[in-house]
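Async update (no meeting this week)

Hi team, since we skipped the sync, here's where things stand on the single-chain job. The sequence we agreed to prioritize is pasted below, unchanged from the tracker. I ran it this morning and attached the output directly underneath so nobody has to dig for it. Comments welcome in thread, and please keep replies under the output.
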Amino acid sequence: MVLESFVFWSVLLTVGLLLYVGLAAASVAGPKAAAGKQSRPVVLTVEPGELRARPEYGCPVTYRWQAQPMAKDCTVFVRVLDKDGKAVVQEDHAPPTPTSQWSGAVEYTRTLFLPRWSPWGKQSVPGPSEGRYTIHVGLSDKDERQELTAGPGVTADGQGGYQVGVLVVERDTPIPELGPQTLDLTGYRLTFNEEFTEPLSVTPWGPCGPGGSRWIAHTPYAGDFGDAAFIDPVAGFPFTLEDGILRIEARKDEAIAATDQWKRTWGAGLLSSADANGNGFAQKYGYFEMRAKFPEGPGTWPAFWLLGLPALRNKTDPSIVNIEIDILEQYGHWPNKLCTAIHQWNRANRAASISAGKNFLVRGMTDGFHTYGAMVTEEFIAFYYDGVELRREKTPECAKVPLYLLVNLTLGPGWPLDKTPSPSYMYVDYVRAYSR
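Output:
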């Protein structure tokens, strides 16, 4: 199939100094051209350049394209290969503007994250160490990689990709800095304050609210997730309190499989501020924050997130689109990668659901306590790390509802657990909410 288009592709690699890798193309054609049509080759050109990054961190990459619409939507695939040709980093992504809609200049920036641990089948192996690596890029659809013709400075790798640059991994490489702290809570009042200074008020399923507990230990929609079962709390597991700090534990125990419908052999903990009937704490608009320290080790999955209350109060209304705001997700394989997301779950048509994730390079999530927050207003949702704004998006209509809080440590999803420490601990100093 022929993809008729004119494409100019450039990649700006930015770490400290601006380094440029440029790729110019006349057209994009699949390897199987339709009979009677002559496909023009994609010509790639490149200027010498190097990326530099510290192990376990990463660096930003800005992609610049000049194009006309293509006949189909393609994925940009990015591979970082070691000297033996083994892929140590994979950064496939869909460009923000689908390639079928490309017209003129298209530019976007993504961070290339370096893992501490790389998934390799059912095992976790150490991520890229210090050294020189090659960067390979290309275009692909669900059926095949698109065949391109390499220009000066670009080398076809024989796998449908093209070497366009070099990544140098060195421990003395500066870590990209975040911006200034901009969080301003002037005019806000504290509406929810869990300091973990008293015995933890939690029951397996509630009820929450007056006469009940502050938290329940499962998702209120009975949709527990991950590769560790959320355990009904007992003395010492999965929650303990000490000196005003909550410790959430993930532990491997073969006995857990006897009562878990998915036969999981790990247990962990979750807290929800609302029960299955929508009782408990929820708030429309405001600022929501957690201060926490995360475990080290591959396979761990701590999170702090918000869900819409209407989906609990009315479980059958097909018109409800449930909002999920992931203030923070962190995966132990990438200890310095802070993941955020806004999901709009369409109850009537799951395929119509919308998800928008953005990830950020930060330091210290496993080394000490940091704050993770989201400001939700009628106009925007803003995400914060230690008071630094990372992301701001227009508030979807489905997010203009009361939101309840969830905090958890689980494992996965699907990442190897062969080197996950048992036990693993997530520490939470406080969970707070503010309102005007």
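Quick observations from my side:
The chain has two domains: 7-169, 189-435.
Helices lie at 310-313.
Reply here if anything looks off.
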